[in-house]
Amino acid sequence: MILPALQKGDAVGIVCLARKVSLEDIQDGIRLLETWGLRVVLGQSVGAEDGYLGGPDELRRTDFQRMLDNPEIKAIFSARGGYGTTRILDQLDFSGLIQNPKWIIGFSDVTALLCHLQTLGLESIHGTMPLLMGKPDSEEADESLRRLLFQEPLSYSVPANAHNRLGTATGQLIGGNLILLNNIIGTASDVDYTGKILFLEDVGEYYYNVDRVLVHLRRLGRLKQLAGLVVGQFSDMNDTAVPFGKDMPQIILEHCAGYGYPICFDFPVGHVSRNLALVVGREATLQVTQEGATLAYTQTSF
């Protein structure tokens, strides 16, 4: 389901779905949203805390539920990622959202929620969040998000990469944080990989653990089912005392050997300042050539 474009004057909400955040921490993001002509409504979970979390589970759940059920709120941002979204996911009621869809925006830990929405036939945005917005180095990420929210034409081109596998694929975009995708397997939030273009990113992981998760996806048949693969940023990677001996491209290509779909490496999505916004659940075409790669949506509006 293609969601309608935001309009100037629309109200948008900010809630804490995961790790706690202070109002001061998101001031730059609030100011940026206001320059876009949007009215920012803060949830009660902003500034709340329960140890690591942005308030107790029930507070975060009811806060988000109110935003989901409020017809005046046209989009909801997770203030930041961290951990905690899956703790409340099964207690949420999405019936109102299905009747009156609105944009849900976030990444990292929010991957579980974005996948859950896709199982309901709803689009969402894997993109930057208020904690990270409005910074000197976030302009490209911020602008890509604005263009998607206001349904302005948008496609991405990235330089050629020696590890790329050439080809063209069309399918719905799925994906996000690799560890979260593995975490939701077998739950109500698990998505169908068949014929999809999968994008992946992560931060602070060990090479062996990324390999272990990809082994799991391969054993499940998930990697074989894909139409295409977009490898985003795996930033701040760690290695063990005994080196794993393979880098990210080598790990990816090993587990995708024998599958003929195109693979694009080094796509600007993930825990980096240039975190370009992607519509999860929207059909797109990935084209990988010797000159580079492009990712473009096959449909952009009603």
Automatic annotation (TrEMBL):
GO biological process per UniProt: proteolysis
Coiled coil stretches, renumbered: none
GO molecular function: carboxypeptidase activity; serine-type peptidase activity
Domain LD-carboxypeptidase C-terminal: 170-286
Domain annotation LD-carboxypeptidase N-terminal: ranges: 12-127
Catalytic residues (positions): 108, 201, 271
Organism superkingdom: Bacteria
Keywords: Carboxypeptidase, Hydrolase, Protease, Serine protease
Cross-referenced Pfam families: Peptidase_S66, Peptidase_S66C
Keyword Transmembrane helix recorded: no
Similarity remark: Belongs to the peptidase S66 family.
Protein name: LD-carboxypeptidase
